[in-house]
Amino acid sequence: MEEKIDWLIKQDEQIMTADDFDFAIIGICERVGQPTIATYDTDKCLSLLRERDGMTEEEAEEYFYYNVVGAWVGEYTPCFVTLYKED
Questions:
Q1: How far is CA 13 from CA 6, 37, 42, 56, in A?
Q2: Strand, coil or helix: what is 63?
Q3: Is residue 70 part of a domain?
Q4: 87 belongs to a structural domain
Q5: First and final CA of the chain: distance in angstroms?
Q6: What are phi and psi of 19, to 5 degrees?
């Protein structure tokens, strides 16, 4: 996990990370006129909450969307991506 954080810092020294979710980092998000931000896989974050913390699917979603996605910490707040999956 340390490699991912080091890589992020090389992209932009001010990048912020979501505490305890390094496992779910999938890259960076670049936006015109905006700072580069860390990008996380939502499904991996939810899986981590279920497996590590023993939460149910509902508990994990409630916690994640309220406490993680809902935590605005400034312009370097990370983004969370739900990847498209074909059925």
A1: 10, 10, 24, 36
A2: helix
A3: yes
A4: no
A5: 31
A6: -55, 130
